[in-house]
Automatic annotation (TrEMBL), chains A, B:
Domain of life, source organism: Bacteria
Protein name as catalogued: Monooxygenase
UniProt cross-references to InterPro entries, sorted A to Z: Diverse_substr_monoxygenases, Luciferase-like_dom, Luciferase-like_sf, NTA_MOA
CDD domains linked to this entry: Nitrilotriacetate_monoxgenase (cd01095)
Positions that bind FMN: D58, T94, H144, Y148, S218
UniProt-recorded Gene Ontology molecular function terms: monooxygenase activity; oxidoreductase activity, acting on paired donors, with incorporation or reduction of molecular oxygen
Length: 438, 438
């Protein structure tokens, strides 16, 4: 009998937690965000919870430094250190395809794969903000379509660079050759965006190729994910939206000639866990209460394009015009409408939801109730697992590992020990042969 | 009374050692060059020897993979891991200014400075080979002058990015701001090669700025070093050459308006240490004997532009035409003439000298005799210290740490404990203020 399908879990580590006010809590790690030991501790916690991987986002502009931490350590250097504080858990770094060359990216990821003994994943992004472009010599971000064309070529070159050393190329013979020159081959790439002769300076990574993650939301993003991603970080605020995304992506993966069953689709998940539902809600309410109201309402005003400064924080959200009558940016507004319709929040609760993971699924409750909802998503074509976005670090990660993981394990949904030593192994992915499509 | 002037020592880690045949020894680490634990062990040895720093070169093309190891792990990721295996020793990475953007480089180096608690140095290079350029979208290396112009601008932008966060910008106030936006300033750079708005995504590094190393040999290289370097990795095969370089660089540093006494000039040093002179020579001869003669003679033929294939390996090097009658590349040929004139080597010994550090100073002898020569260089205007290039790893590093360092310490030339926690501290360099010239 084949092994039962298993959940996959990443721990998406971000600042003092994904809630915008997490750093304001008494005792928060706000002062430790440049301290690698903080991240090592988090990675060890996630490894104790048998997570597939830790996951780092990345950005190339500083953002609003007043409102809270956004970036600090560069993820590849941070993950190299964390590789040595852990032994099994995967290490996923976001690397943008818009600013560097594929040779740089392929080389660092391959090096990190060697350092970690085969535990590296690459979350491919094309970046977003003009402020990022202006740190790398561009006047503004290239148009969306051009970014995705470049990303496609960037990924293809990286894959070929990882294949440029055959698996058996490096076989030091003390009386002969260190490596077989016939098995270390140029890639000879010349395309619209890149020229790369190769081979890579780094022998083939332990995983063959680091695991490709993608977070495709737009059409071109989903197509890029369909062609290349081995795991997907999805955005879905509710079950129906997640099912729709899941079905659409599986269609695209199949259309790209690949096996949809082999690609783990992992929506973001913001979870507040308590021994009782009331305790969980109290954790959420406590951090929501730390949001500076004026600033949050001013941000909300731009999201809903009306003046919210007079709204009563503890009253229900006033009625909002339907999407078709809204003139501003649709994505965030649609999320707000959906949260209001399904959760009937107070204004403060809405601000809290938006401040923690934005449009991502939020679960608040007991370990059993959260495991119920995870299982529901997992069994109803909405998720193969989750990219856990702890609203409060380290607390929410501790809670999930100590309280939710054991429930998932008892239900046979999640591993009770690591059975593999590589991230590919955790995800059930085969090691790609040199030259395999990817 | 001011503290006596002290030697500075870096351990330049490279493959199985700097000798081209080091990997061929029985028991060599040839099979461990992708294993980060190997480098961690070396760094711990260097730290036990109280070295200022470990030092990594870097290159972007694979070279001749048959003849021996050249590159493997990417240095920034490797050093991030090594930062966690050590507590005091500096960590110097070569980063080229020709292929990436200054934002990428400044960000990674700043991140590594946080991870290591202020122990990072940057060896600024402009790279050399067309094969490297062709991995990063160029047809060939830019001309020498253009590379150095770009390097100058690259370094200036990196310095400004490190200064973009004031030292006191990050002061999380749970009831107010995470960082003071008025103390996190754009750099607004727009030059011939780069446009970089800034600020950096990484708060100011613990050292203020990572320490700048440079290895200027050419005129423009020496000038770049004179304007910016805080420590210099020099090439000098003998005392007279080292003195000449030292005096020239000090002149250029003074001409650039800086204090020559504040820049540590550290020639490369290949050292074979033995309990007796005969034992040291035997170590050298043993590895020289592992050089494949045909291949080495063929390489020598290109250096001296005559057919050496019939030369007797154990006979003295035949007479060579003087430099002024030589039509090929001068640098390497001049080194060969100097080695032949001063050391009267056999052909095999010459091949060994060229195979281990090329034109760098080579010392073979007892701990006392090597300490004598080090002291001579140190006291006669030739060196402020050395970038040790162990011909055999880990053996030659162990020998130096266990046998030579104690002699240097007894003579009061070298620290007997670390008195600082940062690389700047080890080198006696002040922490630069934001906006300081550099």
């Amino acid at each position: 009998m084949p092994a039962a399908r298993q959940l996959h879990l990443n721990a998406f580590l971000f600042g003092a937690g994904h809630h915008g006010a997490a750093w304001r809590r008494p005792g928060s790690p706000a002062g430790r965000l440049g301290d690698i030991a903080y991240y090592e501790d988090l990675a060890r916690t996630a490894e104790r919870g048998l997570f597939d991987a830790v996951f780092f986002a990345d950005g190339h502009s500083v953002g609003d430094v007043g409102s809270g931490p956004r970036w600090f350590l560069e993820p590849l250097t941070a993950l190299a250190a964390m590789a040595r504080a852990t032994t099994r858990i995967g290490l996923v770094s976001t690397v943008s395809t818009t600013f560097g060359t594929p040779f740089h990216a392929a080389r660092m990821l391959a090096s990190l794969d060697h350092i970690s003994g085969g535990r590296v994943g690459w979350n491919v992004v094309t970046s977003m903000f003009d402020a990022e472009a202006r740190n790398h010599g561009l006047d503004a971000m290239p148009p969306h379509a051009e970014r995705y064309e470049r990303a496609e070529e960037f990924v293809e070159v990286a894959l070929r660079l990882w294949d440029s050393w055959a698996d058996d190329a490096l076989a030091p013979d003390r009386d002969g050759l260190w490596a077989d020159p016939d098995r270390v081959r140029p890639v000879g790439h010349s395309g619209a965006h890149f020229r790369v002769d190769g081979p890579l300076t780094v022998p083939r990574p332990p995983q063959g190729r680091p695991v490709l993650f993608q977070a495709g939301a737009s059409g071109p993003g989903r197509d890029l994910a369909a062609r290349h991603a081995e795991a997907v970080y999805a955005v879905a605020s509710d079950l129906a939206g997640a099912q729709e995304y899941y079905a659409d992506l599986e269609r695209r993966i199949a259309a790209a000639g690949r096996d949809p069953g082999a690609v783990a689709i992992m929506p973001g998940l913001v979870a507040y866990v308590g021994a009782t539902a009331a305790e969980a809600r109290a954790k959420q309410a406590a951090v929501d209460a730390l949001l500076p109201p004026e600033q949050s309402l001013s941000q909300l005003s731009t999201y809903v394009q009306q003046d919210c400064s007079g709204w009563d924080l503890d009253a229900p959200v006033p009625e909002l015009p339907p999407l078709e009558r809204f003139g501003g940016p649709q994505g965030r507004y649609a999320t707000i409408l959906r949260i209001v319709a399904t959760e009937r929040p107070t204004v403060r609760e809405l601000l809290g939801r938006l401040a923690a993971g934005g449009g991502h699924c939020t679960m608040v409750g007991t370990p059993e109730s959260i495991a119920d909802r995870i299982e529901q998503w997992f069994r109803s074509g909405a998720a193969d697992g989750f990219n856990l976005m702890p609203p409060l670090l380290p607390d929410s990660l501790d809670d999930f590992v100590d309280l939710v993981v054991p429930v998932l394990q008892r239900r046979g949904l999640f591993r009770t020990r690591y059975t593999a030593r590589t991230l590919r192994g955790h995800l059930g992915l085969a090691r790609p042969a040199v030259g395999a499509p990817g």
